[in-house]
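Notebook p. 47: complex prediction with magnesium ion.
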Amino acid sequence: MAVVVMKFGGTSVANVERIRNVARHVKREVDAGNKVCVVVSAMSGVTNQLVAYVREASLLHDAREYDAVVATGEQVTAGLLAIVLQSMGLQARSWQGWQVPITASAAHGSARITGIDGSEILRRFESDEVAVVTGFQGIEPERQRVATLGRGGSDTSAVAMAVALKADVCDIYTDVDGVYTTDPRIVAKAKRLPKISYEEMLEMASLGSKVLQTRSVELAMNHRMRVRVLSSFVAPEAMAPVRLGQLEDIGTVVCDEDEIVESQVVSGIAYVKDEAKVTLIKVEDKPGIAARIFGPLADANINVDMIVQSVTPDGKHTDMTFTVQATELPRTLETLKAAKSEIGEFEIQSSADVAKISVIGIGMRSHAGVAALMFKALSDKGINILAITTSEIKISVLIDAAYAELAVRTLHSIYGLDAD
Ligand code: ASP
Ligand code: MG
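Predicted complex, structure tokens below:
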């Protein structure tokens, strides 16, 4: 017997037919003797619609009322799934955040889970009742108001429920059957990874892979909770129920690196196209200049990613290149212009036609030459590198967007990731 949290995202519960399919996945686990807590998202598109209603009502609105509206999507799904499960002869009950209760901070719209009391759900496991919990929401205890966790927050709800119930695994069902070495739409030879470490998954999530919300991976890592990414589109009866020790037979298990016996030096190649590059040409090279450039950007809440500073031949000036989210480019340029009196004279160039390509792997900690191989492979294809950043387990380069797919395919192949 295992305790299993099963989370289903928007596309998995898109309509009542899809909810019936989810119920069959749940039934498979119950029939195998597992105890099940299901965490559901809103039906796909519903949260976007609810957010649109709020904005239409008033662009400036009370955050508590925004949450009162947008939390309803999950409530509909939870109730519908409980009804379908009951109609299949299973015992099931829906739970909204306040009923569990899941307590959350007062940061409405991006609240953090502060505690979960899973005792009643655990008690009902004894009589084989399935709990269907609304993702994305909790209750803020001070004012007793619904608080939502930020977009994609149901993943975090699921991991938090798994931790509270001391589950054996947190299964996240989505529309892909696992985490791949790279985007299969670009590289047909991309492979499903049976296992990936928390650290690598965090890098992938923060690089924009939408499979798991970054915060849910952090939470899983902190509590060493095994998370598995699976597809709800596989026929429910064709899948084996959860059996401990056999988790990696399907999907991708996100787990501690110690559990990964045969790890590759590089596990995956990620790319993002939504960055923009800004270069300040010929700024004065003296102490404090970087602070005067990046201080105002930080004050404006603009996230800067890669930074490269080069010295110009006269030794008195420098070029400063950095990247921001492409959507933040207009605000970045305005902020810099406004700070011109502090920064001093400079010319500015910017471009949104850039892509960031990253190679990720915990094996980099113990293997030299990973970066050199990357630079050589890109140069062999005539691809120019505009900026570089590294972390212990990641190397990212900024290149011309036109070469993004060529770069991803080239790197996927030289690091030995192509499927045969
Ligand atoms: N329904 C919420 C959203 O669309 C939460 C989630 O699906 O994870 O962001
Ligand atoms: Mg999601």
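Notes: Residues 9-10, 41-42, 47, 73, 135-136, 151-155 surround aspartic acid (ligand 1) (CB under 6 Å). The chain has a mean pLDDT of 94.
Next step: compare against the earlier run before touching the bench.
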